[in-house]
Specification:
Blueprint: H1 2-45, H2 55-61, H3 65-75, H4 82-101, H5 110-130, H6 137-166, H7 173-180
Helix pairs in contact: 1-6, 3-4, 4-5, 5-6
Length: 197
């Protein structure tokens, strides 16, 4: 009777372990299929806009090495795995932040700096979503599209800067602009105040 009980216990234990292993294998297979589907969606959407700048506009960014490094990195698409996309998103974030910190003098204006800051923030968001355990591919695709819109905005702003610089100034316009500059204004001292020495 004791042998029969031990045999029955071992048989039950063997069957339950076999069921656990089968369930684990099924769960692993579903997880692999889900990760492959996410990889395929991200791989198909990972296309960033390349800027086609006019020759005069290219002169503005010709001496900006961070700009070139950023676009070199942007044009290299990872292909092997989700891990490669995660690494690429981190590298792009670093390059975008380096670009913000080194904006050259002709472009160091609020309209440019704000666009580059938005671009950097979008890359940080992309990196964040890429490094979650359960990657929300809709959010990743959304930020890829937003980054492309921001790149288009930067390109348009660069072209606008060139157009503005080509418009001839009227006689006296430079003096007018200098007079409107409040940082150069002479301080008014009321006449009724006497200066005590």
């Amino acid at each position: 009777m004791l042998r029969l009980g031990v045999l029955l216990f071992l048989l039950t234990l063997f069957v339950s372990c076999k069921d656990d292993n089968e369930q684990r294998l099924i769960a692993q297979e579903k997880e692999i299929q889900k990760k492959e589907a996410v990889f395929n969606k991200i791989n198909n959407s990972w296309r960033f806009r390349t800027l086609s700048l006019q020759p005069k506009t290219q002169l503005l960014v010709a001496d900006w090495p961070e700009w070139r490094l950023f676009f070199t990195e942007l044009n290299q698409k990872p292909t092997s795995s989700i891990g490669a996309f995660q690494k690429k998103s981190k590298e792009l974030t670093q390059k975008a932040e380096a670009m913000v910190e080194t904006i050259p003098e002709p472009l160091f204006k609020p309209e440019f700096k704000s666009r580059f800051l938005v671009l950097s923030t979008q890359f940080r968001s992309l990196e964040l979503y890429m490094n979650l355990d359960d990657i929300p591919e809709e959010k990743v695709i959304y930020f890829i599209n937003e980054i492309n819109r921001q790149l288009a905005s930067i390109e348009l702003q660069l072209e606008e800067l060139i157009r503005r610089s080509e418009v001839p100034k009227e006689q006296g316009e430079a003096d007018m602009i200098r007079m409107l500059d409040t940082s150069r204004a002479v301080k008014n001292i009321p006449k009724n105040l006497e200066i005590v020495e």
